[in-house]
Structures are given as C-alpha cells and as structure tokens.
Amino acid sequence: MKIADILEQASMPIASPAYPKGPYRFIDREFFVVSYESDPDAIREALPEPLEPDGSNKVMFEVIRMPDSAGFGDYTESGIVIPAKFGDHPVNFTQQMFLDDTPPIFGGREIWGFPKKLGHPELSVTGATLTGHLEFDGVTIAIATMGYKYQHLLYDVEHGTQCHPDAILKKLQKTQVNLKLIPDVDGSLAIAQLVAYEVADVTVKGAWSGPASLQLFHHANAPVADLPMLKSLGGVHFITDLTLPYGRVIHDYLKP
C-alpha cells in the first residue's frame, strides 16, 4: 500500500477500517434524559480544569437509542453529562459513556475523545413507563424511569413554560466538551485536549417531559454513582434527526 493510500484511510485496521469518514448522520435518535441535583464537591472533582461548575449542581443521566447511525450502525448509549463553564461559555461536559457497539466506541474515543466503554444500556417502554437500564459486566449500575409521553413538551425557551420545539434545539445545540487522552508508544500522553463540538441539522420529531426517578449503583469499573443522585429534577424524552460533525480543540494540556 502506497503512502498516499495510507493517508486516505479513515481509521484502523488498514485491512478493514473500524469506521468511515464523517460527518455522521443519525435518524430517529431517541433521548431519555433525567436531570438531578448532585453534590457540588463531587461535580468539581469530576470536571477537568479549566472547566468550572456552572453553579446549578445539576447532572444529567442519559440513555440514547440510535437505530439508524450512518457509519456506526444500530446501538444504544448511556452516560453522565455535567453542565459546566469554559470561561464565560456554557458547555456540557461528557463525563462517562457506556454503549454496546464497537465502531462508535473506537470512533468516539479516537476522533472526539468521548469517554466510551463497552456496556449494555437499554431503552424500553412497558405499560405506561419509559425505562432506561444500564448494565456493566453483568451488573446493573443505573435504572431511570419516567411516565411514557407523560406531558407533551414544547417549551418557551425564555420562560421555561410552553410551547416551542426551540427548547429542544437549544438543548441539543449547546456546546459539548470531552476530555481526549491518547497515549504515545512509550505510555506517555501524545494527546491531552479538551475537544468541543456542536451537533447540526437538527430536526425535532417529538418531545415529552414528566416526573422521573433515577437509581445509581456503585461499581469499581463504572463509577456512575460517584456523582450521587440527591434529588430528581425531572425527565425529558425526545426524538430527533441530527448530524454529528467533527470537533475542534479548545484547550491543549501539552502546549504552553
């Protein structure tokens, strides 16, 4: 294989790349998000400098069903997201992620620095209840529930009441930030960056809110309970189409 051919590849292994080049389009991407109040000291500990807590003491537990993901397949993902600040700019920091499909694990870690590990999340409806269930190495580590399509959600963006899909657009288009750490061949860090991105081409197909419950269980290798659930702030459930573009470096720890 010639050098030019090597440099055209999207990813490893060279014989069968794990994922193609982006951007990546998601159809009928379904989110279930439970917001909760957590311990401010635990939040501060979980945020890498120079990110700072936004003062809300809020954390979000997410389960996302992705049945139609260009280049990545059909999979489900779950994780912990912390609202924060980068300077004066509000961002969401993705602190932990667990999913059941290898191409988005490889691509997510290598391109954007998503903190992805192999797990077994599920999003399901039984009777009148929407349930997000997360299992890691055969052990349940999180259970989230909400009334299924309990309250049709079309918020007024400015007043937080009703009635416009721009509330979901505003939520999705907020800057997302990951801590990307890639080792060099000697074990030292070759890459240590904060990577930011914003999703694009968003279409909101449906959105609902309702009272929600969340249980987090301690696990040595999947520490979701290190950000304890002190008080549920409710849940949202929405379905969208969107595009995940490439990101950008907003802070490089290896450069002065």
Describe the protein:
With 256 residues, the protein is mostly beta strands. The chain has a single domain (24-252), classed as Acetoacetate decarboxylase-like. It has helices spanning 3-7, 40-46, 102-112, 166-172; strands at residues 24-37, 52-53, 58-69, 73-86, 89-99, 116-118, 120-126, 129-136, 139-147, 151-152, 176-183, 189-197, 200-210, 212-216, 231-244, 248-252. The strands form two sheets. Strands 1, 2, 3, 4, 5, 6, 10, 11, 12, 13, 15 and 16 form a twelve-stranded mixed sheet that branches. A four-stranded antiparallel sheet has the order 7-8-9-14, with no helix packed on it.
The domain tally reads: 1
Could you tell me the CATH topology label.
Acetoacetate decarboxylase-like
- Strand percentage lies at over 45%
Helix content: 10-25%
Sheet having the most strands? 12 strands, mixed
How many H/I helices? Answer: 4
Estimate the global geometry from the Cα principal axes.
globular
**Unreliable runs, pLDDT <50, ≥5 residues?**
none
User: Count of DSSP E strands?
Assistant: 16
**The named CATH superfamily:** Acetoacetate decarboxylase-like
Question: Averaging pLDDT over every residue, what do you get?
Answer: 93
Spatial extent as radius of gyration: 18 Å
Distance between the termini: 38 Å
The name of the CATH architecture is Beta Barrel
Order of helices and strands: HEHEEEEHEEEEEHEEEEEE
Based on secondary structure, the structural category is mainly beta
CATH class: Mainly Beta
Pfam family, one: ADC
InterPro entries: Acetoacetate_decarboxylase (IPR010451), ADC_dom_sf (IPR023375)
Organism: Pseudovibrio denitrificans
GO molecular function: lyase activity
